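Handoff note, outgoing to incoming analyst
You'll be picking up this chain. Sequence as last confirmed:
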Amino acid sequence: MKKKEKISSADTVIAILFLLFLIYVFSSNVKIPFAAVHNLLQGAAGFSSVTESFEKGYCEAFPNKTVFIDINGLGHRLFAQREVNGVVKLKNGMLSEGVPALPENSGFVKNADNVKVFSDWLRDRNSNLLYVQAPWKHDIYEDTNWPTGIEDYSNTNADIFLKELEIRDVNYLDLREKFHLEGGFYSKFLCTEHHWNANGGFAAFQYICEYLTDIYGEEIEKEVFDIQNYQIDTYKNGSLGYYGGRTGYLFSGFDNFSIIYPKFETNQTCEIVHKQVLRSGSFYEAIFDQSFKELPWRERGMYGMYIGGDFPLVLHKSETAKNDGTVMLFIDSFGTMVESYLTTAYQNVIAVDLRWILRNQMNVTAKELVEEYDPSNVIIMFNPNQLGYAESEQFRYGLE
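Most recent structure output, in case you need it:
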């Protein structure tokens, strides 16, 4: 009974806050739509024009919808309700969301088959393939941070997919395992969105470099992936991520956002092909999109500062990296940090997001990109939310 009363009280408070919000919005903006109606009536306009102008005026006069999101989030926070708009507040205060369960026979088998065909085709070209499993914000082993009753199948789905790759003898690196064994799993993630932070992205880069050197015999100087050779700048309370936008900052709080960049000399370019953007100079100048610093605070998800976001095709060239080989990555948004740091090791880094290749109607396949750029190593890296969908464009390589 007490639990029911608590929920009822929370609903009451949220309703009161919402009512106050409506009063505020109405009193602030009521003049605009009514002025539109008055002016049209004075001009003897038709009724359809009146209603059209009224709707347009009211929508334009409703800039405060984010206030309602904030108030709604505050109400949930006051009464310790952990789920808002599909976003879950974990017991450690970080935000996440559950990944749905998928049948084992949904798309896992087909996707793994496609990776195997791609891997064999690359091997015939003397190219190595490595699948990297990025983590979701849910520790691979027993995790006491997830609230009771909130279901998340991210690790289950990833386990199914990695098992299918293992059956097919496809090389993979499981960062979930690495992050758990290293300790401080959640310290590698941003609070207000699903992505890892710079510490997590750099750690992923380190583990990938270790794999490439130990298993594939690549020549990468250890100094390149030693964090002691990098500068760390932190923007305190500088970032409000995707989850924060959905729940309101009064529920989510803000992230301290750090960027990590080399102390050693770098000279490179970053070309975002479909946007015809070319940045050049040091790692700092080429990699970081400085415009994110100037965004209004509600839009300042600083994760996008790396590269500028996830794009269909990004070409990196470095004059200072020692390895003259080419690495091609097929990634989702988790890959932008790894893509960035690999430019310190390789002279040529090519990042491909097949989702955006398709959506931007760029008529090119993974096979054709490999044939054009001839990478010595190909890395496929996705977070668990990309896995198990039969029609996923992320697993179409032009060899089907």
